[in-house]
Amino acid sequence: MFKGKAIALILFCLSPAVLAAPAAKGPRLSDKEFFAQLDLTRPGLQKVRSAVQGEDLEKAKSEFLVYMRARKTPNWWLDWRKRQPKVKNYCKLNKARIDGIMRHMRGDFHLGDDINWAANALKPGNPNFSREWTWGLNRLYHWRDLGKAYWDTGDEKYAKEWIAQMRDWVEDNPCKIDGGNKSPAWRTIEAGLRAWRAFPDSLYYFLGSPSLTADDLVMFMKSWIDHAERLKWI
User: What residues contact residue 203 under an 8 Å CB cut-off, 6+ apart?
Assistant: First the structure.
């Protein structure tokens, strides 16, 4: 009886923040669910299929990375295998903009050491306030700038920054299959623009980077599947 009262007293004293369930994090799919989404009968995926059947999902992820780097199709407008770093081309990129992205700046606004993907440089009381600022951030166009910097220089710091931002974005923005139009990241237009440009460009810019791990790739691909699921609800 005493123990029950003591527990009740402790729970009563705890703040709602302590009692609240931890916020959900992305991606939506588990490793097992991710591999279930793939057609593992396709040529080249035999080792992935074997690892999945043996319930060795870490090996399956490693073999999936090998497969993705080895496949020749589908084609995109750029091919990571043909990257020939030319440092002199870096001047075409606006170095100040790239350096700002590396420091988590969007214009003159600092997004935080841990990027706040719901940030807005304009306060609601500002007559110029618009949610478009946040929506624009979540279109992730700046990932392409990191890709271009990596493409032209071969400097792994750009690949590492993209990987860090990608993982952070996926974790902080779990997919909203329905009701996404009320969120800062999952409106139909942002999901469509990312799936059409930021995601495929990023894949082909960074797939050959030695900094990209199998787990990074699978997290990225899980999120891409989330985008497809979200866009079914148009």
Answer: 76, 220
- In the numeric block, which tokens belong to residue 110? 């600092």
Task: Encode pLDDT of 174-225 as tens digits.
Answer: 998 776 678 889 999 999 999 999 999 999 999 999 999 999 999 999 999 9
- pLDDT tens by residue, 55-101: 999 999 999 999 999 999 999 999 988 887 765 555 556 788 999 99
CA distances from 178 to 184, 201, 226, 227, 230 (A): 14, 26, 12, 12, 7
pTM of the predicted model over 0.90:
no
**Tokens (6 digits) for 126:** 């500002």
Distance CA 230, CA 170 (A): 14
Question: CA nearest 148: which of 197, 186, 112?
Answer: 197
